[in-house]
């Protein structure tokens, strides 16, 4: 799908919470397929997801079976689980009216036939926000639910924006733009010095589709190690600092919709926030 900043306002960002929770649960089948079939990697990078712009989907890394390499994905706008070979969809499972267990049984059957391990056998080392679909309720995500295409557009716009930022970072210093299924955010991490993931100075740049802190999508720029609140300088409006549990420069969906030239102004804010974050944490 082509990202459209103009179409982000079709639905109030705060009205996307239901779609976001259903999609967060559905994408766990993609993560389970990866966890069942890929060697664990530091930081759980084996289970992260890429945005496939052609399919409008969050997709896994390649899973190699007996004689085939497949990827599993979730087309967010239509809430359809996909199995892809190369760039082609070879199987699909619309989730509307189906239960979480039905999706797992379908995916088990497809991957088993390809000689892959069963996603239903994978254990995830994290919890996600509760929703009735996780307790057996059916997904309600048909074409009448316009929130899902808008949620997909937020991911598409974020992937496009973050890809441009990633391309401007010196080669090798920023991680690929990927979605993390535990928090459901899409992000890149710019590492600024020596050390491991816990000690190296870095700046995370991403979009969260909503969480317990903000009931709407928001872009964030996170300096690490976490600076003291009294060291935080003012940010260009309409962004602000978040300091409850984590420290990040935040630009909410509502603030973005109020901007003229949304893409341009969002990029300007992110660039400014990244520069501030680098000054806060970069080695001296």
Q: Which series of helices and strands comes N to C?
A: HHEEEEEEHHEEEEEEHH
Mean pLDDT: 95
Q: Count of DSSP helices?
A: 6
Distance between the termini: 43 Å
From the alpha carbons, calculate the radius of gyration and give it in angstroms: 19 Å
List the topology elements.
Blueprint: H1 17-26, H2 28-37, E1 50-52, E2 57-59, E3 63-64, E4 69-75, E5 80-85, E6 88-94, H3 100-113, H4 147-168, E7 178-180, E8 185-191, E9 202-208, E10 218-224, E11 240-242, E12 248-252, H5 253-257, H6 262-281
Antiparallel strand pairs: 1-2, 2-4, 3-4, 4-5, 5-6, 7-8, 8-9, 9-10, 10-12, 11-12
Q: What do you see in this structure?
A:
- The chain is an alpha+beta fold and about 280 residues long.
- The protein has two domains: about 10-135; about 145-280, no CATH class.
- About 30% of the residues lie in helices and about 20% in strands.
- The chain contains six helices and twelve strands.
- Strands 1, 2, 3, 4, 5 and 6 form a six-stranded antiparallel sheet that branches.
- The model has no long low-confidence stretch (mean pLDDT about 95).
Characteristic key phrases:
alpha+beta, 6 helices, 284 residues, six-stranded antiparallel beta sheet, 2 domains, single chain, globular
Short description:
This protein has 284 residues and is an alpha+beta fold.
